[in-house]
Amino acid sequence: MLLSLLSKASCQSQDVAIPSTSQEVPKMGLVQSLTAGRTIAAASVAEGDSCEFGSLYYFGLCGLGGVLSCGITHTAVVPLDLVKCRIQVDPAKYKSVFNGFKVTLAEEGTKGLAKGWAPTFFGYSIQGLCKFGLYEVFKVWYTDLIGEENAYLYRTWLYLSASASAEFFADIDHPWFCKHPPEAWPRIMREEGVNGFYKSLVPLWMRQIPYTMMKFACFERTVELLYKYVVPKPRADCSKGEQLVVTFAAGYIAGVFCAVVSHPADTVVSKLNQEKGSTALEAAKKLGMAGLWKGLMPRIVMIGTLTALQWFIYDAFKVAMRMPRPPPPEMPESLKKKLAAEGKELA
């Protein structure tokens, strides 16, 4: 299925004649909908770009950018994540972030704060590959399915659908790498079988899919709003450094919302990993409403910073690799004409 999506995403219509004049004509194709009126299509490499927008090579680079953004950032915040999880599952012992660090250092030393960094790095690198790479694939594919005008009018739903689809597949590797160290794999396989790796997959989806939907959709729309209402000049007039500052700001805002919507499910997943044999519902009942929201502030700080850095690294990678970076969506000319004919104001 994924190979067919990639294959479809790299294709374009063959029915379009190449203009014989030097006048720039918007190229028809799969990837025109969110970049209406501009010549961004998987037909030729634009001047200054290293690859075609929507090509297999482009999606491959997006996946590599996801590897770097997720692998590096999640590994860097392992100590904070470890303390946050301990606050969630044992608030009597770990009373606050500062206290959690103090107790962990006293009992386990500095090495205790780095516990689990290896499976975290490899697991989140693979997840980043799927999350960012497939998001770009699904965004292009769904754009083609619903058409140019609908892709603009319902772009928030487009971002939500594409990110949810990407996260669904990205989470499948997660229980193997991120929740269990490699030395535990044979024992888990022997005692519980393959199901032992995936017993927390459903609550993981409950946490990660809303998280990723917010992460991508909120980021995309925040970037759009920042350029429209905050940045004093069009994106085309901004330097690459200024654009990356906007990326970081939009990423942090998206991260705050990500933390809030996914925190209860994150607490349940932490509890399930502590107590074998429990179900998600049983864990939620034990935690109670107050327990479900325990550790929210450190999670907001962690996820906000994490998400901002991920988007910064991902966008900086695109800049370094000279990848196409389409500007915020514009209303298609066909839709402008329809609204003008109906006497409606252009949004």
TrEMBL record:
Transmembrane segments: 244-265, 296-317
Signal sequence range: none
GO cellular component term of the entry, any: mitochondrial inner membrane
Region feature Disordered, mapped onto this chain: 325-347
Annotated Solcar repeat ranges: 57-141, 154-225, 242-320
Subcellular location: Mitochondrion inner membrane
Ranges of Basic and acidic residues composition bias in the record: 333-347
Membrane topology qualifier: Multi-pass membrane protein
Xref: InterPro entries: MCP_dom_sf, MCP_transmembrane, SLC25A3/Pic2/Mir1-like
Keywords on record: Membrane, Mitochondrion, Mitochondrion inner membrane, Repeat, Transit peptide, Transmembrane, Transmembrane helix, Transport
SUPFAM superfamilies: Mitochondrial carrier
Function: Transport of phosphate groups from the cytosol to the mitochondrial matrix.
Family recorded in the similarity comment: Belongs to the mitochondrial carrier (TC 2.A.29) family.
Protein name, UniProt field: Phosphate carrier protein, mitochondrial
